[in-house]
């Protein structure tokens, strides 16, 4: 299978916060990989813009070092790195003051795609948007990219949307959720809507339940103070898990077009029912040989913030009535693994002897590690021995499918190229974000009102015992968390 690289139009991409952690760890190394793949036209430029005083050469050196530290195999391509950094510029700029703006205005070209990546704290979004317009740097064709967190509740998300809307149309705003940039996520739509096999079965008649798990082995060490103000609900569920849920559950859009797809996702969020408190399990990891407890990492001995969350949700529409969606995410769990599992119902009748419940079809969609999908099907165990049934996976690993010389772009790379192409399909629309907060807010408010205390769980486990019970009491089991 040969994948084609289609170059984008020539662009000027300004990265506000170009010296920050995200820019050095993800954005610039990702852009270098797209450059090497031939996707970034030679005349394009990346302009770092941040507070530090530096010249172009200083910035180029910073990015050489970032690629050496955070790049993959491509970091040994020293000629490639030199050609890439030659396309970098730097402007020292103050988002809240006037310094640097005239210089940036002078640098920008009128005849190329202009994009502005706001890789800074959301409190600076308004100041940046205002100055981009005041200095005539952005016009009605320009695009802006904004990072999570997009608000911490409905009111703050609305305020952020309103601030951006003062200067940019919705068609110009790209709210990044890097989960949507994963190969598997797009493949989920290809599998559902590009095959005759699945869509007829994609409903409550054939699907028993759906599980979405995003498990991490890391704790919150080093970012405990930040994390303690958000927790798993705000940090993971409201955005990443919600987006995955939407793609699994949405109705087929009439076209693969940004607003048509996002209209269908929005309907899913709006159809989500309020979650009963006893359908939610919150947890905090305990101290272990692997490290400190959550409360110690967060430096807050009285913290009630959750580092783990498991919940059962329902979507109130014809397709999904009666089908539970179990969501689970947490830190310091037994493996780093993200997976969506569609568990089909048992056969109504079997002609074979023995326990049919074991033989269920399961479609599992792996986001990490080893992105891919497998479909568990039941076959006869090969060889003599009579009609014994076994479950085998029909496995499709994307890395294998691409072949040894091809590398799928990582999520950030793909999404940034989509910004340059002007394709918003894989970005969250303002109303989606607000609808997700409208569903999340009452749950969080309920915990606060009840002083809900998270359950402790062992580091390296699958979370608190109560999370197991959420499924066990309904005769179901969580999938094993495997790295
Ligand atoms: P950081 O603190 O490492 O970097 C912040 C950047 O903003 C620096 O380049 C700094 O110079 C610049 N900056 C700060 N104040 C400025 C001002 N007044 N004028 C101009 N520039 C200014 O932060 P980060 O980790 O790179 O994160 C940036 C944004 O991305 C944040 O909103 C963060 O929540 C979000 N985010 C980060 C990550 C990550 O992995 N780091 C992941 C997801 C989202």
Written overview of the protein:
With 483 residues, the protein is of the alpha/beta class. It is built from 15 helices and 15 strands. It has a 9-stranded mixed beta sheet, with helices on both faces. Strands 3-2-1-4-5-6 form a 6-stranded parallel beta sheet. Helix 9 packs across helix 10 and helix 9 packs across helix 14. The longest helix is centred in the C-terminal third of the chain and has 21 residues. The protein is globular, with a radius of gyration of 24 Å. The model has no long low-confidence stretch (mean pLDDT 93). Nicotinamide-adenine-dinucleotide (NAD) binds next to helix 1.
Record keyword descriptors for this entry.
483 residues, alpha/beta, nine-stranded mixed sheet, six-stranded parallel sheet, 15 helices, 15 strands, globular, binds nicotinamide-adenine-dinucleotide
